[in-house]
Amino acid sequence: MITCEICGASFKTAQGLAGHKRLKHGTQQQPQFVKQQLYRKVLQHTADKIAEQLANGILEAHGQELLERCLEELHDQGLDIQPLDKRQTVRAIIVAAGQSSRLFPLTSDKPGCLLDVGNKTILEKELDTLQGCGISHIAVVRGYQREKINYPQIRYYENIDYENNGILKSLFCAEGEINDEFVFLYSDIIYRRDVLERLLQDKADISLIVDTEWISHYHQRYQHSLEEAELTMVEGNRIRRIGKNVIDPGRAHGEFIGLAKFTRRGAEILKSSYARALNEYSGIPFHNAPSVEKAYFTDMIQEIIDQGYIVHNVDIQGGWAEIDTLEDLEKARMQFHQS
User: Fold this and answer.
1) Is pLDDT above 70 for 129?
2) SS3 63
């Protein structure tokens, strides 16, 4: 017999005594294995807290490095995982100041970028593509009938003298945006999303999209001559020459489509080169332009190349359209009518 030390009651088994104590005296014997489980839980909780603190310290010090290494490994395995939040820091500048005179009379009451292609305007399609690639900081430089361009959540800059200057000047009307990584775009182009994705993936400080199948765009294109193409010559993924009427079409590598990217360092190169050009070329010929004030974007790129900086070509084979004439507009509407 086993006696309860509290009340003196007798029991034949230990289980009976334990049940008595639990019901009569509110006590329960805890087996050893239960205590061990509690110890494990306490130790595991403590270990989790220590691991969390260590992980936070490592991520704070080396997080970006670890993230980029992980993304590179995934990319090497064929997985393209570019975090959208990283692209939130990339800006976009769309130059839409020109008059688009070749699209008259359709542009008599609106800028060319507001013409419809499919179910959206040209500019809406650009905005959709940028936002679809994670770029939300978008600026538009307006000029001709600027009040007609009025989309929400877009920053606007004005080129009030658009009739007397060129694309380069329009770009620098938004100079406040050229402080970090940004994408530069013409406002008269439509392109597939994968074209912009390829540009965003390029690591060079200055990158330009170049169509190597450019000649096919000029087949039965009568209102926009071959001489107006902004052609490139390339050596080893490096653009050496660029511009209109400066390269023999038979020797050209491809056509610049009006889509470029600059890293923070690339933006610094662009700004310093433009400032120097204003001092040295004001009122006199600047590459293929009568002056730096009337220069094309490609004139500035050639100046940067001549200074010895690397400008990288990112090659594509079609997947875009320029809308410079009424003929171009009709072709674009057939090509992109469902997009």
Assistant:
1) yes
2) helix
Contact 181, 262 (CB under 8 A): yes
53-84 residues labelled b (16+ CB within 10 A) or e (exposed): eeeeeeeeeeeeeeeeeebeeeeeeeeeeeee
What is the C-alpha R_g of the chain? 33
pLDDT of residue 228: 82
DSSP string, 281-326: HTTS-BTTBSSGGG--HHHHHHHHHHTT---EEEEE-S-EEE--SH
For range 30-45, the mean pLDDT:
64
Cβ atoms of 259 and 199 closer than 8 Å: yes
Euclidean distance between CA atoms 150 and 143, whole angstroms: 12
d(CA 295, CA 281) in angstroms, rounded, equals 11
Helix (H) or strand (E) holding 185: strand 182-186
- Rounded to whole angstroms, how far apart are CA atoms 312 and 308? 12
CA atoms within 13 A on the CB side of 199: 33
Query: Burial, 176: exposed, middle or buried (Cβ in 10 Å; 0-12, 13-18, 19+)?
Result: exposed
**31 torsion bin: left (phi>0), alpha (psi -120 to 50), beta (else):** beta
Q: 49: exposed, middle or buried (C-beta count within 10 Å: 0-12, 13-18, 19+)?
A: exposed
| Whether pLDDT at 127 is above 90 | yes
